[in-house]
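Chapter review: from sequence to fold.
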Amino acid sequence: MTRRQGGLTLLLVKDGAEKPRELRITSRWLRVLRWLVPAACGSLLLMSGSWFWLASEAVRARRMDDQVAELSAGRTRMLALAEQLNRVEAQYDNLRRLFGADGEPGASDLWLPPPGGRRSQSSPEGQQALPDSWPLTTRGFITQGLLDGGGGDHPGVDIAVPRDSYIRAAGGGVVSEVGEDPTYGFFVRIDHGNGYGTLYAHASMTLVELGSPVEKNEVIALSGSTGRSTAPHLHFEVTLNGAPVDPLTLIVQP
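The token string follows.
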């Protein structure tokens, strides 16, 4: 490379060539290159920065699209659950109307708790302590009654009914015991006050909790064959001051 007055000469020597080639750059082009090279480098840097920014924005946009899709799917699931809940509540209301649960007191022999567990504090049904109502929504068939007069061997009656029939409280009161026993299986015991108590045994499922107030004819369990049992039935006991009482002296089978 040879620098001349006011310019620049480049000698290009090719392997095997006898004479080199000259490339002369005038002072004018040197001034142009002086500004052109930095501008080109700056443009390359700007383009590189823009590409990285666009790439990061594209990744961010994809993430936002995924979040929007997830939120939309969650909203769809919530709408489906809300629709299902509305259907269940409508079916429950239809069931209550079917049994007359929304009518005047005494319009039905079956009491169902209102939706959401709301319970009237002044319900006249809850004040009827005497357990004188049939403990099932079906007639059933009595297979064994109270034995030995005092009920020592079998202090109650056995009523054969299909599995998962509604068991209802014979009178208003408070759940004094609920659980599972090797003999009685799943059972519910209700204190009706004035010395009266009732027991409902061999259930497939109990629907009340300890200490819960219950209405007369409220569904408290489903019949089954748990405990010491050979077939689905309800074992029903009535006690007065702890002594067995023949339920059929208080209750008339429908």
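Two observations follow directly from the output. Residues 96 and 102 are 7 Å apart (CA to CA). Residues 27-98 form the longest helix (72 residues).
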